[in-house]
Design a protein that fits this description.
Length: about 60
Amino acid sequence: KPILKDINVDLLIKFMHRVEERTARNQAFTLITSLTKLVPSQVLPHMIDICTMAGESTIKQ
């Protein structure tokens, strides 16, 4: 489990904010889902950003 400390959720969130490609954004959401199961304490502080991006993605689609 030591590798889990090296996960950079901040970088993934920044990527999700900037990416416009729908497929890449969906894959990022899938990755966030997996990370939430593995390291919820690292994802939890970003939940508002994640929910905002999910809403924006839904509106764009």
